[in-house]
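Lecture notes, part 5. Sequence design as translation. It can be helpful to think of inverse folding as translation between two languages: the language of shapes and the language of residues. The source text, in structure tokens, appears below.
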């Protein structure tokens, strides 16, 4: 390309302008004639036409990456380019405004004209900073892992880790802190001021301890974009600002068990918010730090355990030594065995030269100088009790606790005979102890084979002591052949390999009693290593074996009881869900009737709510059974937290108003519109918490508060708090309210299973969260429910909404044939009425055998198959239908509470699984999806229709006003309590005063129209 901007040059310039790398075009005299937009973007400044080569390199502020020197201009545009050669350049970086450096690489190519002569040159270059950093990061990670694997010192490894990540971002200052017992310890901060490292060392963690202390306390990342304004930096703000620190992002270093080992922090000298790449770098740094710290901790623990074990072994040997032993270092006693303490009252930490004076004993405790060898010395010393002891002192240089020390071994040579006598006493005591514990001692002299038994051995084998007994023959006679051969083989192997005998066997005594014995044996060898004696023990373990068998039987009985409980709960679920399916199903069908009045609708609502309450109780028990069996799991789907909270609030709004409570919510502005999570379990937890709050609060208020905290990209921590002004919970009760079937004193006085909080706590833990409670008697309670969720879009939320109510089939499509199989007539009738009203053609069967016959004639498109039926059950019927080649869609329907019912039915050939009781809209939606049918949906449901006017009429209020006050109060109470028989009796009393009032009361009682009756009585308006 040449200078100028003719018609042919313009398209070429436009092409160069959109290229994703920098382009510079030179004339043959090394003058710049063109630079594209990307070149200016990479350079951070525009490049004017006409600049010389040296002016361009100066404008770009080119530096050599390796040493920071000015980059030679001739490398950018070599002279031989104009001779037709291509020149490449690397090891080059741009210095942008603000001091930021960007690495570039590229090459310069000659451009030939039509005659083959060089007419210009083109330099292309690109920014390789991120690529180089990624390469450096990968190499750095490998180097860090090599340091960790080679057990390199931890702080040096963490320093290398900090420098590695500092190289990944301009201006970053990295810091690594360790956390032990709630206190931070400085580990590495190669680019931060030394004064900052000293200041932060030893600081406690807490919710207001800067970025690092707060991150360690909360166990989650803390991002502070401006230290000058963030309240968490109040304690350290002046210090940090004085050192020029303005932003800090800290990530905790957590183990799998969420134990905090430290923090990794990025500091900046200006206010700054993290980019996604920097957040990922922080997580990456935290993971590498975890590996290094865990490895170091493991090595330290192993070394400490090894040193401790070595020291304990040494102490165990020296404490059992027959003489006094001391270890000396630095003029102090570092170790004193029990004999030394007893004879001379010397304790670790004593200074012999000062405590013992210049006497003979102090001379005995003289340390060895480095390299000194000292002969044994004898000394006669006087003990504290006035007694005289003759000592023989032996000195050795030893390493103790990692340092060179002096071991002094003192032998009381004047009392060797006394020691022998004491040894005999000890032996006798040992014999007495073994006799008292019924432990028999035996020995076999090798190779002669002479056997000795003590008194207990005779008793264990049922033989009286007598001279000349053949103990080998007695032993072999008492044992069975298999045990004899097995023990003989074990002893022979032990003699060859020093394996100690440790076994059990049965012996048959002369009186026919069988006993279980246990035997241990050790091998005694002489100085040459030859086995000379086998010494062993026997003791009776019959009672122990019987206890173990009884324990095993008890364990098997407990497991059988658990299985029986699970089966009972499943059966109970089926027996309750089956009639509940009919109750709730017909309630749903009746709701479709537009002619129903408000009273009937309220009565249906009572039926529905009562049925669902009963269902909730059995579900609680079944859910707890699942939890105990470890089979509880999450069902993740998109949902709206705000909508769910509003739904739960509306559920309890009426009850709260009836009790005069103020029920309110406060949703944080940052609460996401949609999240992925288990909405069913979240709703259940909120219902349990809000139900308790409204139930136990008699006056005041109940408030829900919801907030969201972003833990990392795509992951959220949602917190919902329920506060009430109720009676509070006593401290002893706080420790047990989350136990299954356990309730506080207030809870015992109310209805419920005592499972709500136990199930809620399990659900919260399942969702990586928890439930905390703060309460005191007379001051209300605050329950905080936290759980994890992930981001979801509004579109996902819309697609996850429940199905609409269907009222018919769209015209123009074939009428599907449906076979309903259920042994309960009520269930069959319910489905027939529902499906026929929609437009399906329906047939029924009462068992599996009848279903097979009807199917072959009717040829249904869909089979609604009950799983639990007498005779041929639903699973077997489904398998038979598939074996016969049936292509009907099979929907398995069951009231069973067994968790494997769905898996079993689908494996048998069912297409869809539904559990009773079901919502008619959900069932119709599953049928529509399975068959591909289209429904007609109403523009509005019965719930949208205005309620019909009162049957009692407004005129009766005046009639009721003439009744006696005490009678009106009784009528009001009976109506509120829905006592129809009581109302009929009161109607006869009211007839004395007004026939119209009596007839109205009797009519209301007959029609269960309690709400209208209460309104007409107007008790609250009476004086």
């Amino acid at each position: 390309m040449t200078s100028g901007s003719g018609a042919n040059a313009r398209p070429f310039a436009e092409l160069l302008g959109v290229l994703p790398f920098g382009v510079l075009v030179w004339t043959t005299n090394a003058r710049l004639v063109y630079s594209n937009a990307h070149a200016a973007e990479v350079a951070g400044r525009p490049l004017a036409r006409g600049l010389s080569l040296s002016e361009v390199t100066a404008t770009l502020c080119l530096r050599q990456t390796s040493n920071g020197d000015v980059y030679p201009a001739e490398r950018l545009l070599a002279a031989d380019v104009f001779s037709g050669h291509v020149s490449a350049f690397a090891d080059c970086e741009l210095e942008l405004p603000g001091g930021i450096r960007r690495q570039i690489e590229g090459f310069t190519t000659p451009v030939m004209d039509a005659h083959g002569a060089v007419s210009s040159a083109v330099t292309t270059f690109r920014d390789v900073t991120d690529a180089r950093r990624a390469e450096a990061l990968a190499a750095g990670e490998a180097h860090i892992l090599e340091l960790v694997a080679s057990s390199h010192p931890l702080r040096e490894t963490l320093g290398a880790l900090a420098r590695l990540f500092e190289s990944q971002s301009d201006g970053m200052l990295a810091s690594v802190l360790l956390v032990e017992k709630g206190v931070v310890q400085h580990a590495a901060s190669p680019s931060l001021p030394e004064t900052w490292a000293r200041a932060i060392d030893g600081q406690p963690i807490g919710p207001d301890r800067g970025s690092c202390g707060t991150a360690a306390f909360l166990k989650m990342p803390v991002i502070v974009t401006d230290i000058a304004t963030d309240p968490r930096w109040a304690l350290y703000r002046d210090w940090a600002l004085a050192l020029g620190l303005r932003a800090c992002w800290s990530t905790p270093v957590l183990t799998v068990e969420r134990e905090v080992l430290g923090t990794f922090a990025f500091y900046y000298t200006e206010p700054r918010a993290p980019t996604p790449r920097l957040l990922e770098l922080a997580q990456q740094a935290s993971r590498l730090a975890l590996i290094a710290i865990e490895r170091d901790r493991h090595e330290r623990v192993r070394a400490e355990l090894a040193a401790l074990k070595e020291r304990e072994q040494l102490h165990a040997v020296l404490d059992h030594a027959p003489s006094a032993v001391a270890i000396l270092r630095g003029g102090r006693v570092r170790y004193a065995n029990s004999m030394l303490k007893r004879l001379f009252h010397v304790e670790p930490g004593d200074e012999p030269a000062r405590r013992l004076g210049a006497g003979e004993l102090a001379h005995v405790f003289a340390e060895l100088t480095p390299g000194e060898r000292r002969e044994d010395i004898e000394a006669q010393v006087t003990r504290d009790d006035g007694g005289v002891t003759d000592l023989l002192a032996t000195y050795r240089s030893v390493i103790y606790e990692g340092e060179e020390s002096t071991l002094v071994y003192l032998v009381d040579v004047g009392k060797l005979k006394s020691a022998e006598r004491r040894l005999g006493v000890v032996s006798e005591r040992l014999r007495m102890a073994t006799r008292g514990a019924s432990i028999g001692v035996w020995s076999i002299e090798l190779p002669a084979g002479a056997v000795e038994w003590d008194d207990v051995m005779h008793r264990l084998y049922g033989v009286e002591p007598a001279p000349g007994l053949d103990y080998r023959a007695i032993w072999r006679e008492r044992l069975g052949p298999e045990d004899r051969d097995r023990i003989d083989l074990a002893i022979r192997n032990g003699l060859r390999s020093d394996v100690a005998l440790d076994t059990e066997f049965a012996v048959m005594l002369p009186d026919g009693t069988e006993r279980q014995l246990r035997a241990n044996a050790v091998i005694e060898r002489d100085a040459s290593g030859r086995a000379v004696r086998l010494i062993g023990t026997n003791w009776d373990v019959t009672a122990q074996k019987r206890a173990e068998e009884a324990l095993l039987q008890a364990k098997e009985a407990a497991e059988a009881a658990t299985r029986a409980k699970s089966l009972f709960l499943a059966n109970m679920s089926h027996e309750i869900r089956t009639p509940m399916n009919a109750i709730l199903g017909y309630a749903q069908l009746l709701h479709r009737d537009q002619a129903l009045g408000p009273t009937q609708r309220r009565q249906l609502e009572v039926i529905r709510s009562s049925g669902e309450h009963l269902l909730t109780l059995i579900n609680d028990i079944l859910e707890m059974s699942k939890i105990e069996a470890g089979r509880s799991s999450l069902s993740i789907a998109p949902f709206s937290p705000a909508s769910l909270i509003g739904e739960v609030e509306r559920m309890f709004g009426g009850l709260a108003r009836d009790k005069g409570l103020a029920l309110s919510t406060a949703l944080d502005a940052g609460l996401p519109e949609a999240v992925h999570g288990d909405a069913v379990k979240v709703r259940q937890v909120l219902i349990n918490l809000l139900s308790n709050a409204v139930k136990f609060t008699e006056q005041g208020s109940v408030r829900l508060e919801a907030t969201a905290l972003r833990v990392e990209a795509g992951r959220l921590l949602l917190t919902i708090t329920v506060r009430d002004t109720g009676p509070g919970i006593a401290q002893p009760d706080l420790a047990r309210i989350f136990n299954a079937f356990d309730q506080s004193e207030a809870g015992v006085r109310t209805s419920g299973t005592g499972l709500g909080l136990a199930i809620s706590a399990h659900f919260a833990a399942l969702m990586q969260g928890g439930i905390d409670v703060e309460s005191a008697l007379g001051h209300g309670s605050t329950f905080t429910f936290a759980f994890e969720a992930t981001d979801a879009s509004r579109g996902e939320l819309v697609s996850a909404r429940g199905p609409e109510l269907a009222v018919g089939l769209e015209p123009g499509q074939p009428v599907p044939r449906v076979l309903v199989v259920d042994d309960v007539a009520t269930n069959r009738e319910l489905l027939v009425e529902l499906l026929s009203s929609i437009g399906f053609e329906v047939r029924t069967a009462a068992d599996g055998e009848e279903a097979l016959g009807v199917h072959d004639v009717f040829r249904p498109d869909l089979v609604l198959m009950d799983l639990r039926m007498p005779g041929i059950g639903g699973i077997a019927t489904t398998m038979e239908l598939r074996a016969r080649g049936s292509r009907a869609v099979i929907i398995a329907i069951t009231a069973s509470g067994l968790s494997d019912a769905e898996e079993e039915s689908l494996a048998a050939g069912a297409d869809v699984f539904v559990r009773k009781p079901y919502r008619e809209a959900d069932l119709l939606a599953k049928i529509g999806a399975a068959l591909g049918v289209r429904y007609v949906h109403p523009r509005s449901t019965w719930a949208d229709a205005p309620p019909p006017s009162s049957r009692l009429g407004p005129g009766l209020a005046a009639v009721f006003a003439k009744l006696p006050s005490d009678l009106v109060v009784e009528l009001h109470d009976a109506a509120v309590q829905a006592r129809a028989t009581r109302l009929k009796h009161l109607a006869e009393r009211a007839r004395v005063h007004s026939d119209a009032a009596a007839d109205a009361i009797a009519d209301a009682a007959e029609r269960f129209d309690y709400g209208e009756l209460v309104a007409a009585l107007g008790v609250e308006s009476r004086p």
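The translated text above is only one of many valid answers, since several sequences can fold into similar shapes. Confidence is low (pLDDT under 50) at residues 1-8, 416-426, 744-753, 939-951.
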